[in-house]
TrEMBL record:
Main location: other
Pfam families, per database record: SBP_bac_1
Protein name per UniProt: Multiple sugar transport system substrate-binding protein
Organism of provenance: Thermasporomyces composti
Annotated GO CC locations: cell envelope
Keyword Transport in record: yes
Keyword terms: Signal, Sugar transport, Transport
InterPro entries in UniProt: Bact_solute-bd_prot1, SBP, TAT_signal
SUPFAM superfamilies xrefs: Periplasmic binding protein-like II
Amino acid sequence: MAGRGARSEGTWSRRALLRTGGLATAGLATAGFVAPTLAGCGGVGSGGGVELQFMYWGSSFEQKAVNAMLDQFTKTHEGVSVKPLYTPRDYDTKVNTLVASDRAPDVAYMGAAMGHRLARQGRLVNLYPYFKKYPSLTDRLPGTYFWYGKDKTFGTQTANEVMLLWYNKAVLREAGVEFPPAEAAKAWSWDDLVEAAYKLTYDQEGRHPDEPGFDPRRVRQFGISISLQYLPAWECLLRSRGHDLVDESGTRCLLDTPEAIEVVSNLQDLMYEHRVAPTPVQLGNNAPTTAVQLQTKRIAMVVDGQWILLDMAQSDVDFGIGVLPSYGDPSTTQLGGASVIFSSTEHLEEALELFMFHNDPEHVDLFEKGLWMPLERKYYTDPEAIASWIDNDVHPPEYKTAVVDYTLHHAVTAVSQRLANMDNISEVLTPALQAIETGKQPAKEVLTAVVPKVDRLLRGWHPTQDPREA
């Protein structure tokens, strides 16, 4: 799916969907959605068999792939049919409506914040007791689980995603800039990134920001774009600097530390001091997708999610993927919405089978198409399993080191998935980040002021545990 600015009216981009449980939850417009007519989820199909309901979001491409998966599930599970509830807009509102009226689906996509709330209310199935029945559930990447207590998890991510550095190879070649490293051990420093961005930024007269006469109001091409408002895009830089958003106890925000101020100030400086990154005004409210920005050479390098590989592979861009710049310890953000089973299901056994089936790379082509990354560890460690989803024309040659190895060894789960009460914290943090990104105030001033407000909302980290101990 598309990245920043790729949302049509009333429709979430994947970036917005992945932050439903965290920063800047979007308010969505009403869309045509037919609620289930059954009293309760699932039920008896017209032929007398079991009918499940599967509720999900996504693009039209994802809809096609998911529906094909559901058809395949029906063909391989005699007596079971699945009704797809495709909901590309106003997802949280519609889930709340269905839950309140006791018409929740059997299996569904879900944001982190809503998932934790419904799990605590007992409305979601705790999957931990089923780990022994489904051993592959215990072998998913540790950061992909949604734990809400000891031996309690309401699900895992539907698919995995990480943040990466995307670039237009032709643009970098023309400017004489070496491609960003595709190995974590060779990651650029922050200064390396800035130096490259200067060479890749020029105005309508071809002047660079460090040359006399450069006109920042008439920039033809920017060197880099990193969203400040989108926390997953840069929280990994903070961790690379040796910090997290909050301390280990989950009760003290660390955004006013010298390290955090340095990282966020550097992001702000890309726009207002170095002038190598577009400001929100220059980017525009309806900015094109990352693929289009790179293809039109409006921007040379962009930090965005792995999911845009689907768009990139279908574009005419000669693109490359690099690891993110590092302050010392290479790091990227791992994130993804959850898949869950509602405890109100009348057909738990069949719902569990569907849960295990729906994001298995053997049944869904969204992995080899570039939208999704697998959850199971074997797809990052076993050469044959790795080849099954990346050995194709969609995934570029550097993907193994830039994404697979990078994820396995250097990915940390997004704060929005790990930190309790993140939906309320985001209401305070988002305006502060907007003030920094728009250049209204220096980063240090904004961060120092917002930390006490965040501290009052902190409720600690969500629990974690090793799934293999089941």
